[in-house]
Design brief:
With 182 residues, the protein is an alpha+beta fold. It has helices at 6-18, 36-53, 64-70, 88-95, 137-146, 160-170, 173-181, and strands at residues 24-28, 56-60, 73-78, 81-87, 98-105, 119-121, 125-131, 150-157. Strands 6-7-5-8 form a four-stranded antiparallel β-sheet, covered by helices on one side. It is elongated and about 65 Å long. The relative contact order is 0.12.
Length: 182
Amino acid sequence: MRKLSLGQRIRFELAASLLHHPRLLFLDEPTIGLDVVVKRQIRALLEEWNRDHQVTLFLTSHDLGDVEKISRRALLIHHGTLILDQSIGALKRLAGLKKTVRVKYAAPVDLSGLVLPPAKVGADWATIEVDVRRHRIPEIVSSLAAAGEVADITIEDEPLEDLIADIYRTTTLEETHARAAH
């Protein structure tokens, strides 16, 4: 087995762990160090076994792609204490509260007269961080479009990675211990 690549070893270990049709499977970083193609194959296999064989998967991972693709629930543990237990859908809805609007103009524009949420601005581009609880996306887009000819625009939800980092960053050790006491 020493001559196998990492991807081959992971596949072999996963096959061996599924051989006896377990009802429960614990996986620690199942796709770490794997290339994109093998990651997709492993994720698809795990989804299939969960769906078709009713295998319950417990996944520990720093790869949010794994968490997002394989899991239905996310549990965040901080200093040994559970600080979040939510469905992936609920977590994604939280991430949808912050959006990034990126606009590229056909020519340089002057955005100095616009009242915008926090923005990074260049001569012919702007990136705006929008909290949708405070600002409406259509109004932001209308303001940006009125400033000049738009060559390209994208609107993205906050990446789950950023949301989770914010949760960890804003959860103090005291809050973690207080949650553990309840």
